[in-house]
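P.,

For your records, the input lines for the assembly:
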Amino acid sequence: MSNAFEIKNLNIYYNGLHAVKNVSIDIPHTLITAIIGASGCGKSSFLRAMNRMNDLIPNSRRTGEILFHGVDIHQPMMSEVTLRRRIGMVFQKPNPFPFSIFDNVAYGLRIQGMRDKATLDQRVEESLRRAALWPEVKDRLKQSAFALSGGQQQRLCIARTLAVDPEVLLLDEPCASLDPTGTARIEELLQKLEKEITIIIVTHNMQQAKRLSDTVGFFHLGELVEFGRTEEMFEHPRIQLTRDYIMGHFG
Amino acid sequence: MARTVHRKSAESVFFLSALLALSVALLMLAVLVVEVFVDGFSQLDWQFLTHFPSRNPEDAGILSAWVGSVYLITLTVAFAVPLGVAAAIYFEEYARKNWFNTLMEMNIGTLAGVPSIIYGLLGLGLFVRTLNMGRSLLAGALTMALLVLPIIIITAREAIRAIPSSVQDAAFALGATRSQVIRTIILPLSFPGILTGIILALSRAIGETAPLIAIGALTYIAFLPDGLSSPFTALPIQIFNWVSRPQAGFHSNAAAAIIVLLTITLLLNAFAILLRNYFYRRIHAHLS
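Structure tokens returned:
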């Protein structure tokens, strides 16, 4: 099995805070990897390192290597703009642009210079279908994205990300602000997408990690405590701390 | 029970004093407006708007003054808005936190409070003399642009800061460059707020007299400006000039000119507010 990411000795600092401590991990290609852990354990910082979103935070510093399909993402030849097109990201709170549904999905294509109306139409429809949102919005593409429910907005954000055809989808607690129905639809969608692209999802919901993921990593206080196949880790965690977290003793 | 009554009476005392404070302010404004109208309304006619100033108060008009004011304000906005918005974008999107930028920020805050006559003297020294522009429309507009620049920078920065960072993050995560984020997200979404700054700047600039007197705008002009280097006059200067004459006829003219100035200010503000509300509804209301 090939790896999408090989991460070696990753450290992330914000001013004085050492948020991610010496993490090394290999993330497999086209599977769902879940990152679990209590709030503030560095799992979001870890996720944001992979598409270099951390570069936007003033005073953040990194050491260590992140290889994406064998290529160092920090090497000078690799621009963060190209990288972010290949590695899409969905955030904790749905954050559609205050534009129409169509313009939201078309945004990533338009900034790449795509102007042709027919191609845009086709790519927008295709992305909305992949995000399982097309039947609900096909008659109101011109409406504001804010007319949608929270769960629909989050699927719109996924569609928007899929429109630029990324190889990886990073999701930072995508269901944190959704109701159970909305959550179920996102999970269903991710399981469908898993066959096409690599998915890395940060979640504090252990049930979700168990239901969705093939591999899972457990973070505690900035360190990667344990990483392995999901069934194994939930059935027979090797480390006491993991067992305590999974049993709900803390977190 | 007694306590509730006490609290209720304290409540109404507060309400009444707030109302009183408001009435005093409104009353003063009403007195001003009424007095100006009583003095000047009879003078106000088509002839007043279409005639040049004259030695005879009956024949005198404000054509050169109101046209000069409109030119001046238009040019001021044309200079100050691009500069001010660009400066605001620099501070919010590019500037790192260091001593130079902190000093710049403090300076802009201070500049907003500098008396306008100082800007007039700066304009006289820099634009009129050193850059040899003379007492021209261009020199006047540049001086006014400097005067309103801090207002525009401060309000534009606030408008930009009000855009949720989550929306910018979304654009960055889709592979947008910083300049694309500025063009497609920051500018459109902060536009209503920037318009608010322009309204404030306009209202300030149209009534300013001191800097124009300092750079030597003329008070008697019997022609319309025919270019950027043309001498000019403006409504506040004409008013100032008429008020300082001994004849009562000129005082009525001054009152009439004040009515025109107030009307222009109100119209400009109303237009800008309508525009702002239109864009606000279209874009910003979504974000809350």
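Two observations worth noting. Chain A has one domain: 3-246. Residues 117-130 of chain A form the longest helix (14 residues).

Regards
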